[in-house]
Amino acid sequence: MKRLAYLMIPILLLSGCSQEPSDKKQFVTIGTGGVTGVYYPAGGALCRMVNKTTDSHKIRCTVESTGGSVYNTNTLAAGELELGIAQADVAAKAVQGSAPFNHALSEVRSVLALHPEMVTLVARRDANIHSVADLKGKRINIGSPGSGNRRTATELLQSCGVEESDLALAGALKSSEMPDALRDNKLDGYFYVVGHPTANIKDAATGTPVNIVPLTEPCAAKVIAAHDYFVSTEVPAGLYRDITEAVPTYGVKATLITTTAVSEETIYQVVKAIFENLDDFRTLHPAFKTLNAESMRQGTTAPFHAGAIRYFKEKGWITE
Ligand code: GLU
Known about the structure:
The chain is globular. It is an alpha/beta fold.
């Protein structure tokens, strides 16, 4: 008797332990961008899809507004976020360990690709900016340190031979502050790498007459040619006040990323919840209108996470 009772204690403890994780909710947070951009509503839409089926997988998803791609990537690597949205060019730089990253973040993984983002140079109409060369002597917001804009715009400016010291101001405002600064004539223009339409540029165009500058000079073509992840594209006509013609520029995919520290099971469940609710997901933002199961696997730069690979294999989209 005595002996049996002794044996039963560890068994009870063990079964208590093994039940706990399956009943307990697991929280995942997606790092996004400024509240007037597209990442923030994109994160909200992704979480909505995951949270629809929380009862079955126990994952509860929440969104955080952040400085953007570079912040999200660094914070993921520090283990302080489980998911983040980042421009594919920024994710590529992270994996390689090139600027703005000072060492390779080899643990970064792709989950899926989202909408295309366009390198968008918004300018006050009275500033007369029609090319990158025209930026010399102007007050231009390049982007906050955590933003992807800052990285992408810096690469373009370097290719075009425009130094920060050539600008009257090389601004580092965060994205949500840019439209007011433009309206209040504290800036002549700003770079934003973003999906369209975005509330941010709607606000700017409503506040003051603006133009979107075409990025078609040879120095821009050189940047596009140097990287597979950049493609020539345009900002569509008719989305913003007075922008009645499409503006040629180049773009890059927004990608959902994570790290190897997040489990295969968690990422598998997240990917499954999103891919199995694509029709709903697409309706949540006009920038997602053209997304489909194929495009959402194209344009990523970091290797896919094991959980994403598991889902893609299950669907027969990949074989090895
Ligand atoms: N691409 C921008 C960045 O990484 C964010 C765009 C957005 O918030 O929609 O900083």
